[in-house]
Each structure stands twice: as structure tokens, then as C-alpha cells.
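Hi C.,

You asked whether I'd gotten around to modeling the 252-residue construct. I have! Everything is below, sequence then structure, no commentary in between.
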Amino acid sequence: MNYTQAKAIISGGASGLGFATAKSIIDQGGKVALLDINAEQGQKAVESLGANAIFIQTDISNEADVDSAADQAAKFMGGINLAVGCAGVLGAGLIHSKRGPMPADYFQNVVNINLVGSFLLTRAASRHMQNNEALKGERGVIIHTASIAAYEGQVGQTAYSATKSAIVGMVLPLAREFARIGVRVMAVAPGVFETPMMEKITPEICEQIAAGIPNPSRFGKPEEFAQTVQHIFENEYLNGTTIRLDAAARLQ
């Protein structure tokens, strides 16, 4: 498959990595459905993408929301053959801090958005993909966003790293299960990227972080994530694994 045939549902699609992926698909003639909880950003994003894009306000951690969004997306695009999970929260925090112990519901919220949301998107998208007409035996591709924090989590990333590690762990069993319906499952583990999550960090700290990235010594660009997603979609031999996209960065 190639992007001219793409009918993509993208969670977290109103900004950052998700929006860059959506723009790449639209620019090459495909269709996209943006799922995001931020209605204002979502409307602006879809207006900039044009008639082949739709925005559906969605709480990715809500089962009914995600199932309904997938149905709306499939109706708009005439099916779904690509799902990209970019919705997520950093959920930074210490288990024990000056403010006291981390509340269980704070940890649970990170799990609900990052991990349960990935499961719900997988389930909803694959429900539609399994009914697609097979192209050379292929009916769809599901790509989730992990993180290098899945492998080298930092202090304060317990919740975030746990969910990203779980996404890495889901990929192979999903790929094996979905082989029977012709759906591939992959994940991308980005390093430090220019996304809204990084906007709260001071320029000085950003420079220090960039200096520790071997080559090139800079933050990743959302367009580079989008290029990786396209390659996965178009390369039918990529399945069941996670690609690190991090310029050889290893967190210390």
C-alpha cells in the first residue's frame, strides 16, 4: 500500500507527531481522521488539511468514544487501513515528593491515556480493517508511539516509562494475532522531538539535552516521525517490532 490509498485514523492528531503524520498523508492524496480531545486545536488542524480530513473530538481513554470515532472515521473515508496512535501524556512526577506520595489516580490516568488508549485504538481500527479487501494479502497497518523512555526511563518517569514499555510489549503478540486478518502492527520509539510536550522546557535545558544527542545533535522533527510512519506503511515486511528513532541517544 502507499499513501495515495491511505485511510488513516490518528489519535492525538491535532498537534505534534500526529498532525505531521496527517499532513504527510493529505499531501500525498490520502484521507485522515484526526482524533483528539482538544476541540479548538482539532478544528484548526482539520481546516488547514482540507476536505480529505475530518476531526472527531475523542477521549482516547473512553471505550465508547473510541469505538464511535472509528465508526465515524470509516464512514467518512470509506474504511480504515492505517491507525497511528500518537495520543499521550508525559505524566511526570516522583512517587514520593515534597507534596507527598503520588496519588494512585494520577498514575492510573497516565495508564488510561497512554496504554488503555492504545489498546482501544487497536481494537476499534482492527475491527474495521478485518473487513477490507486484501491488497497482496494486506488489509491494514497499526502503528503506535512508544518512546526511548520505554528502555531508559528517567527519574520521575515511572508512569510514563511503564506505559511506553507496555506498548513495546504489545506489538509482537498483536502482530502474531492479526496475521490471520492481514494486519501488521508496529511501534516507533522516538527520542527527544520538537512537540508540545517540550514547549515548557527552558531554552537552556533544551540546549543541554540536544548536546547529549550523538548525531545529529538536535531534537527530532515531527516530519521525521511522519517519514518513518510512511515507510512502515509502505514496507510490508516490517511487522511486530519497535523502531527507535533517536539519533543514537541513550538516556542516562
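If it helps when you're writing up: The helical segments are 16-27, 39-49, 63-77, 104-129, 158-178, 203-211, 222-234.

Thanks,
B.
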